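A quick word before the example. In earlier lectures we treated sequence and structure as two separate objects. From today on, think of them as two lines of the same record. Here is Flavoprotein-like protein written that way.
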Amino acid sequence: MKVLIVFAHPEEHSFNGALRDIAVEELKAQGHEVQVSDLYAMHWKADIDRSDFPTIAPESRLQVSEASAASFATNTLTDDVKAEQDKLLWADFLILQFPLWWWSMPAILKGWVDRVYAYGFAYGVGPHNERHWGDRFGEGTFKGKRAMLIVTTGGWESHYSSRGVNGPIEDLLFPINRGILFYPGYDVLPPFLVYRVQKLDEKGFEQVANRLRERVRTLSTTTPIAYRTQNGGDYTIPSLELRPGLGTPSSGGFRIHLRD
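And the structure line, produced from the sequence above:
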C-alpha cells in the first residue's frame, strides 16, 4: 500500500513529530511505501490568492472556484500544488496529522486543502441529474482510497465527550472527516486520538506509541465510519435533504448523516 502523511506541526522534535516517525517506521516495516508532506518544513504557502492562478488576467475579478477550475483544466496550477496532487493520486491511503488548535486544524493544513483540492480535481466533478448530484460524499476522485486523522490535544478525553465542555470530538472533527475526506470519495477510518499530550510521561508515551503501531497494522481492515453517501438514495435530489423516515428520533445535527 502507498501511504501519504500530510504533517502539520512547526516543531520537528515535538510529540507529533515522534508519532509521525513511529507511524512511518511501522508502515515501512509492514512493507508499505510512504511519503511525508511536512508542511512547515516545506514552508507551505497557506493562503490562496491570485498568485495561485498565474494565467488569470490581472484585470479580471478573482473568483477562486472558477480560477481553480480553469487552471486545473489547462494544467496551469502552480508547481507546488501539482506536486501535492500527484502525491494524492499516488497514495492508496491518506493520513492528515495535526494538533487540535482552536477546535480545528492548524491554518497551514487548511491552506493545503484550500490550494490542493482544486475544482475538477477534488470537487465539482461528475454529472448532475434527477438521481445523481455530482461525484461527492462517497464518490469522486478518491473513491476506493482510505484516509484517517491523527490528532493530538492538550485537553482531557472527558473534555471532548458527549457532555464535555469542548463538545464531542466526533462533532469537532466532522467537518474534516466528512467534509474534507469523505466528500471527495475517501473511506474514512475513525481518527487516532491522543489526549493530554503535555502530561504524558515516558510510560504514557510508550502506551500511545504501541497503540499507534497497532492501528497502523490494521489500516486496510479497520471498518470506516458509516457516513451516508449522497447519491445512494438517502437524500432527495436536488434539495439534498435526508429522506423522511431516516434517522432515529434522537438523532440530529451531524449524527443524522451516519447510517443507522
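Notice the following. The mean pLDDT is 93. We will return to this example when we discuss secondary structure assignment.
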